[in-house]
Amino acid sequence: MKRISVLNGVNLGALGTRRPEVYGSRTLADIEEWISAEFPGGVEFDFRQTDYEGEMVGWVREAGRSSDGLVINPGAWTHYSYALHDALEAVEVPKVEAHLSNIHAREDWRRHSVVSPAVDATVVGMGVFGYKVAVSYVLERLGRV
Ligand code: DQA
After folding, report:
1. How does DSSP classify residue 51?
2. The whole model's pTM is what?
3. What is the pLDDT of residue 17?
4. Whose CA is nearest to atom 8 of ligand 1?
5. CB 78 near ligand 1, within 6 Å
6. Of the residues 85, 99, 131, 137, which is catalytic?
7. How far is Cα 16 from Cα 38, in angstroms, rounded to an integer?
8. Rounded to the nearest whole angstrom, what is the distance from the C-alpha of residue 11 to the centroid of ligand 1?
9. Whose CA is nearest to atom 7 of ligand 1?
10. Averaged pLDDT of the chain
11. Which of these is catalytic: 23, 85, 131, 137?
12. Type and span of the H or E element at 85
């Protein structure tokens, strides 16, 4: 059984009502349920969301110790959190940065991710399907596909 942490950052707890035209109408709980259903058996998910940067840094470190892989959507921290970059850089499990929206097709400030250099791969603009792609990649890296 592989354990994968799926960590969502700032403002992602508001999915469902937050700009549904950009992020879709599913809540984070709906999305987590859907991801679990897409990988029946064989994967144990640790789903978490926080609006506190320090808490997320702790969870990233914890995932490095107690999970086999990591998928993270840092929300707006993507664009400025060097603390999150440094936490991710120190984690050695397969790790993917996922974004629901296509950050390259939006405001200029969203085009740059300071965390991307610290992860193995990024997924943008695929909506919730991006989480499935990210988890599939982690499993591939773990030799499970
Ligand atoms: C996001 C993109 C970020 O720019 C934004 O701040 C978010 C969500 C995405 O999933 O598309 O909160 O990470």
Report:
1. S
2. 0.96
3. 86
4. 75
5. yes
6. 99
7. 20
8. 9
9. 75
10. 96
11. 23
12. helix 82-89
CA of 1 to the centre of ligand 1 (A): 30
Whole-number pLDDT of residue 16? 85
Question: 108: Cβ–Cβ under 8 A, 6 or more apart, which residues?
Answer: none
pLDDT value, residue 97: 98
Say if strands 43-49 and 95-99 run parallel, antiparallel, or are unpaired: unpaired
Q: Where are the beta strands (DSSP E) in the chain?
A: 2-10, 43-49, 69-75, 95-99, 121-124
> How do residues 122-137 score in pLDDT, each as one tens digit?
999 999 999 999 999 9
CA 135, CA 55: separation in Å to the nearest integer?
22
* Per-domain boundaries in the chain: 2-141
CA pair distance 11, 141, nearest whole angstrom: 29
Nearest alpha carbon to residue 20 among 132, 93, 127, 122: 127
**Regarding beta strands 2-10 and 43-49, do their DSSP bridges make them parallel or antiparallel, or are they unpaired?**
parallel
52-96 pLDDT, tens digit per residue, is: 999 999 999 999 999 999 999 999 999 999 999 999 999 999 999
pLDDT at 145: 47
For the question of residue 23 being annotated catalytic, the response is: yes
CATH of segment(s) 2-141 = 3.40.50.9100
